[in-house]
């Protein structure tokens, strides 16, 4: 019998024992579903967490002036404190980095601030920050209403503000704060935007207790001491982060006029370690998921082998007739092997579809619910199906091929 005829015969045998075949295929599909589902869920969750970590700064780093909180270092030598990053230095750095990355400059204006408006006032725990045009994007803050600062407002230092949800709820409950006025630090500001609710962030209220004003406006605010500017640089791709960190260090040394051979007068604080830890964790999860799926498939292969052994026993007389008509042992073996592979392939296709759906459903509850089509795991699942079919069908097929035709014809 040719390969095509063996496949046709396998489908005829499957159709004649439909219930048994369906149950066997379901056993295989459960094994493949667990394997593909677990691996798909891990990949989808990793994708979601990568996006979250990127918003938390996994693809970015901050530059701050270097200093020591303790007065003395080893040996009683007084620790050296370098000058803070000035506004001019921050702007020079931003210009020199250019289009290689996105640079956001911000300054902390005031904490524990009371904000008034609409005849109401907030608790004295609001934070006032000054930021440039990239601040919202680089901090991953989204607007729930209104707009961002215009270039004219940023350049002129206009008295405009973007407020968090807690500020809005205290001062303008049940209404939009956009185009209304608030009072803080002795000035009146027009609200042009409202931030989306972010929830508590490290106990500080996140963006909910934030009042954001233009950077130039912050420079004009009365203060007792010079502002400290924070520079946050975001790479366009995680792969460029290492190169960009080195480039930024060189640019900042030139901007700060650090002498050759002297240590950096600033610190580069990156959080890219989160991404590497996530990769390591996901690899361990994949290994664990593969082992769980493998154990399930092992049980499915044993069940398939048992079903094929029953099939050989039931079709002993049929095998004897085929051998009497001239079928060789190789052809009999091929027939049963192909039948086992076809059953596995049918169960595998169903298992892959269920696994992809299951994996993406799990990620929907844990992450952002990004739908992922795992072509690698789908291909691996089909290869495993063929392997399971060969492994489970070989012994029953060999047993069928070794049957004596005369004894088989006498079998009742």
TrEMBL record:
Domain MacB-like periplasmic core stretches: 21-224
GO function terms (MF aspect): transmembrane transporter activity
Membrane topology annotation: Multi-pass membrane protein
Keyword line: Cell membrane, Membrane, Transmembrane, Transmembrane helix
Family statement: Belongs to the ABC-4 integral membrane protein family.
UniProt cross-references to InterPro entries, sorted A to Z: ABC3_permease_C, MacB_PCD, Macrolide_Exporter_MacB
Subcellular compartments: Cell membrane
GO cellular component: plasma membrane
A Pfam family: MacB_PCD
Location of the ABC3 transporter permease C-terminal domain: 291-404
UniProt protein name: Putative ABC transport system permease protein
Organism: Hymenobacter daecheongensis DSM 21074
Major localization class: membrane
TM region(s), chain numbering: 21-42, 287-312, 340-366, 372-395
């Amino acid at each position: 019998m040719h390969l095509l005829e063996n496949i046709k015969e396998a489908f005829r045998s499957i159709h004649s024992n439909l219930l048994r075949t369906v149950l066997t295929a379901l056993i295989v599909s459960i094994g493949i579903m667990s394997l593909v589902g677990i691996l798909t869920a891990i990949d989808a969750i990793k994708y979601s967490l990568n996006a979250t970590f990127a918003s938390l700064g996994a693809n970015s780093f901050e530059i701050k002036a270097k200093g020591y909180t303790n007065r003395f270092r080893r040996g009683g030598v007084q620790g050296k404190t370098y000058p803070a990053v000035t506004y001019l230095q921050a702007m020079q750095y931003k210009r020199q980095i250019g289009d290689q990355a996105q640079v956001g400059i911000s300054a902390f204006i005031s904490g524990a601030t009371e904000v008034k408006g609409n005849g109401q006032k907030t608790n004295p725990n609001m934070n006032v920050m000054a930021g440039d045009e990239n601040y919202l994007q680089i901090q991953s803050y989204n607007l729930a209403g209104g707009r961002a600062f215009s270039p004219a407002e940023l350049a002129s230092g206009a008295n405009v503000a973007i407020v968090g949800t807690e500020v809005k709820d205290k001062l303008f409950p049940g209404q939009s704060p956009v185009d209304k006025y608030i009072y803080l630090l002795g000035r009146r500001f027009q609200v042009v935007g409202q931030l989306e609710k972010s929830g508590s962030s490290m106990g500080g209220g996140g963006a909910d207790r934030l009042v954001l004003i233009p950077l130039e406006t912050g420079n004009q605010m009365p203060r007792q001491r010079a502002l400290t500017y924070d520079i946050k640089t975001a790479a366009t791709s995680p792969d460029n982060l290492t190169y960009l960190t080195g480039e930024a260090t060189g640019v900042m040394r030139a901007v700060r006029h650090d002498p050759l051979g002297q240590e950096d007068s600033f610190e580069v604080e990156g959080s890219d370690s989160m991404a590497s830890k996530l990769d390591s964790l996901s690899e361990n999860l994949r290994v664990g998921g593969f082992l769980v799926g493998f154990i399930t498939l092992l049980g499915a292969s044993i069940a398939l082998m048992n079903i094929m052994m029953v099939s050989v026993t039931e079709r002993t007389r049929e095998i004897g007739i085929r051998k009497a008509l001239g079928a060789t042992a190789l052809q009999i073996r091929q027939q049963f092997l192909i039948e086992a592979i076809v059953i596995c392939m049918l169960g595998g296709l169903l298992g892959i579809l269920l696994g992809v759906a299951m994996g993406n459903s799990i990620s929907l509850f844990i992450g952002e619910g990004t739908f992922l089509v795992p072509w690698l795991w789908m291909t691996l699942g089909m290869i495993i199906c063929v392997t399971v079919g060969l492994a489970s069908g070989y012994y029953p097929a060999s047993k069928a091929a070794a049957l004596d035709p005369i004894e088989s014809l006498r079998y009742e």
